[in-house]
Structure formats: structure tokens, C-alpha cells
Design goal:
single chain; alpha/beta; 8-stranded parallel β-barrel; 10 helices; 8 strands; 14% strand; binds 2-phosphoglycolic acid
């Protein structure tokens, strides 16, 4: 009997890097350097590069998914400069929601992030919800409390069934580890992944053990092994290193080892 298995996911968050002129080529190069069985690959370029990346991957690597980095909490309206879920149709199949840089720079609240999740799911987008504490929270022993509050605020108003069906992925990204070169310990990230699934259970999820939890924060080819050695961690949301084909080759290659081991364990 085959038991349910969580996928191994490596998602590239290109943030505000690349242009429509160069994004397609970079996506193609990364796709060709990361052909590893069993790993779900997602590339999230800036909005204006989505079409270029989609077109580049459609020919070269149709199994690599394209994701947006954000989505608006309304379907349409007077929201200058924003992008709604219906606008992403045909351009992206995944979307990052609640990244700490959006929480910080765009004052995104958990309530609003919850609405974004709803719009994403209605629009057929698979969401990656980001949660994570600040350094001061961790030092004060409040990391779990912060993540718990975020999860309840982001997810509490939603039908777990709908989000589970949409394939919700959660990325634990301690804010102090993002772009700093200071990654969390694998064991701390794994403990938080277990906490995340425990909170999901408390807010009505019937099968929290099936929700993929990624780690994000200064992930590189050199340190990905520390995270993927933890059974609770299902992959990574990669920022800076995701723009470097050599790094991505190493990261996805290591993810392939975990994917193969999981497959062997359930066969
Ligand atoms: P980083 O970013 O890998 O550059 O730390 C991760 C993220 O913000 O998703």
C-alpha cells in the first residue's frame, strides 16, 4: 500500500531582480541545471517577468511551475499598482503570500494576508504562506507565540478543506535569517515545522501532517542538507541563491536525495 507522502518543493523567490529581457534565459538555465526526479520546482519572478519565464519554461521545462510573489486581496478596484488573482490567470500557477518583506514594506496584516489566500485559492493559484519571527522575538523566547499568532490570523477565517485542496504550502522564514547569511539551525526549523502542523491541528485541519512546510532564510547549496536532513522539513523557499544556477543545481540536487529516500520509504 502506498501511504500519502509530502512533496519535496524548492521554490525560487527572485524578489526585485531580473527584467523581462533576461528572466527567460535565467529560468531556462536554472531549469536545465535542476532536472532531478521527484522535486517540485517553482520559480517566482517579478510580475513583469512572469510572461517571459512562462514562455521560456513552456518549451524548455514544462514541469517547472511559475509563481507570483504576491496577489491583491481584492479581485479588482481602485488599487493603483496592484495585481489581482484574475490578472495572473495563464501567467502563474503558484503565489507567495505574506512574505516578511511585504509584511514590513506594505504593512500587510494577518487579516489581509488571509484575504489574499482566499483570492489566491479562488483564482486557482497554489499558495505558499510565509510566517516567521523577528530576531527580538526569538531572543525573548517568543518565536512560537509569534508564528502561532500569524497562523491563526492568516488561516483562522478559512475553511481548512479549501486550503488543503488548493495544496497550501507553508514557508517558515525567520526574519533574521532572510538575506543575512545567518541561517537558522536545522533542528530549530524542524521544531517550528512541527509547531506549525500542531497549530493547524488546533484550528481545524484534519490532516496537518500532509501540509508541506519549507524553510527559508539564507538557504544555499552548502547548508540545504542541514534542513533536508530533518523529516519535518519538505524543502526550501530560496531568495538570493535562487538567482545563481550553480547554487540552484546544488540545492535541487540535494532535494532529490530526500525525494528519493521518501519514495523508497513508502514503496
Ligand atoms: P534569502 O531569502 O534566501 O535571500 O534569505 C529567502 C526569502 O526571503 O524567501
Amino acid at each position: 500500500m502506498i501511504r500519502a507522502m509530502r512533496p519535496v518543493v524548492i521554490a525560487a523567490n527572485w524578489k526585485m531582480h531580473t527584467t523581462p529581457a533576461d528572466a527567460g534565459e535565467l529560468a531556462r538555465t536554472i531549469a536545465s541545471r535542476t532536472r532531478v526526479p521527484g522535486v517540485t520546482r517553482v520559480i517566482c519572478p517579478p510580475f513583469v517577468c512572469l510572461a517571459a519565464v512562462r514562455d521560456a519554461l513552456a518549451e524548455a521545462a514544462p514541469d517547472v511551475a511559475v509563481g507570483a510573489q504576491d496577489v491583491h486581496h481584492e479581485l479588482a478596484g481602485a488599487y493603483t499598482g496592484d495585481i489581482s488573482a484574475p490578472m495572473l490567470a495563464g501567467l502563474a500557477s503558484w503565489v507567495i503570500v505574506g512574505h516578511s518583506e511585504r509584511r514590513r514594506d506594505h504593512a500587510e496584516t494577518d487579516e489581509r494576508i488571509g484575504k489574499k489566500l482566499a483570492r489566491a485559492v479562488e483564482g486557482g493559484l497554489r499558495p505558499i504562506l510565509c510566517v516567521g519571527e523577528q530576531l527580538a522575538d526569538r531572543e525573548a523566547g517568543r518565536a512560537v507565540e509569534v508564528v502561532d499568532t500569524q497562523l491563526r490570523g492568516d488561516l483562522g477565517a478559512h475553511d481548512p478543506e479549501l486550503l488543503a485542496e488548493a495544496g497550501l504550502v507553508i514557508a517558515y522564514e525567520p526574519v533574521w535569517a532572510i538575506g543575512t547569511g545567518r541561517n537558522a539551525l536545522g533542528s530549530d526549523a524542524a521544531a517550528m515545522a512541527e509547531t506549525i502542523r500542531a497549530v493547524l491541528g488546533m484550528i481545524g485541519w484534519t490532516e496537518p501532517g500532509l501540509v508541506p512546510v519549507l524553510y527559508g532564510g539564507s538557504v544555499t547549496a552548502a547548508n540545504i542538507g542541514e534542513f533536508l536532513a530533518e523529516p519535518a522539513i519538505d524543502g526550501a523557499l530560496v531568495g538570493g541563491a535562487s538567482l545563481k544556477p550553480d547554487e540552484m543545481a546544488g540545492i535541487v540536487g540535494r532535494a532529490g536525495v530526500t525525494a528519493a529516500a521518501r519514495l523508497a520509504a513508502i514503496a
